[in-house]
Amino acid sequence: MLAAGTVAELAAPGPAGLLTAADYAVGVGFAVTGAWLWAAERGLGLLSLATAATWFAGTLAMLVPGLPGYPADVAVLAYRAFLVHLLMRASGGLRAAGRSRWLIAAGYLAILLPDPADGLASAAVMTAVAAVTAQAALRARADRAILAATALAAAAISAIWWLAASGAAGAGVELANDAALLAAAALLAFGADPGARLHGAINALVVELGPSRRPNAPVSALLAGVLADPDLEVRYAAPGMGWFSERGDPVDPPPADEGSGSRRVTKAAAPGGGEVALVHGRGVRPDPALVQAAARAAALVLDSARLSAEVREQAIAVRESRRRLLSVGDAERQALETRLRAGPVGRLQRADETLAELSGDAAVNARRQLAVALDDLARIAQGLFPGELGLHPIETILRGMVNGMPITANLMTSGQLQDLPSAQKALVFFFCSECLANVARHAKATAATVELHLEASNLMMSVLDDGHGGATMTAPRGLRGLADRVEVAGGTLTISSPPGGPTLICAKVPLA
After folding, report:
1. Total-model pTM
2. What percent of the chain has pLDDT over 70?
């Protein structure tokens, strides 16, 4: 190509000297840049070589005798279309949005227009390229200076093309065009080469990537900006635990790379085992060196995702352990309640029957004391576990609980509470009994309302009293134990109890 360009420049008509050397330097600049970028990113290399080839072809077109004006004009301006495509590709515009693709297509269509529309249209397209590259520079983090310089070079080129399209001609305009094109080639050689950008890009990633310091700028968004891949996804594999997002949420494994139509995946090993996967947008051909370095940088930062996943797993394990302990405790309490009723209570009841056959004040007094003891044992048994749950409807039990309050109390229900599983019936019983016991003992209230609502997916429970307020969950038992029981069931318990009242205790439990 350089040899053909040398022949073209020497054979082309026109003044020799500085202008010929400058024209030749432009072709050499884009040819060398294309060869330099070929190994790093073949697409950029091809576009730069095509720019050099069409630049020299425009010079050769002048040597063809009798070439009509339109083909000659197309040949002279053909390099502009490839230059537009090259600048957009180097700045990430090709992958950024559909409008950028339309801009590239407009660059190719512009050179096909008749003179002077071709010059005006290509100048307008280059102006738009300068604007898009400037926007990319504002969004960029690692190579902002290179993109800003490229935007300035594109702006200078567009200004010169506007001058040429408006009729301004001469060696000065041509030399200025050559100088601006040489500057663009140099910037492309440096800025579009991943080897030259890599150090600054990865340093910027390591500094900026960090969910704790940048909660609104996740790793995926930062990498997408650097790699010019808006559809980029970052996934993290924790050893033995599966794949997670950068925030520690479980996700599907990355897709397999099944060809050009599928989403490409770049993986890198992470500290402490596991790996990071960058799932690229469809049709994107990422630069291998840059994305591998970016994946390694992300792996350093996304180790926090592994910690989050481990904490999540530990929390699930603790919750399951608490659920098992609560189930075992309830089973033991239920067994103890059954044994209490069948053993001591049964024997005392038989003793009462024996005393009923005797007469005299001593027997009456003994039976009275025995009735008190039986009542106490019944209350103890009821506190251990509500054995009535299997004998009577839960709503009947709750209504008896409300009617036994020393203050005015109301019960409001909706939904089929009797259809609840036994574990959730027990939860309802303990919630109401604990809250009403606190009202009777501590609230100094005159009225209380218990509400139970069974919705499609949730059980809503609340107890409201008009007492003096100040209820808390600081004590290890009482409301704190009730909150633990609700949380083990997957629900949440909230307390609103300002000084002076009223006190509202609410629980929301999912039915799944």
Report:
1. 0.45
2. 66
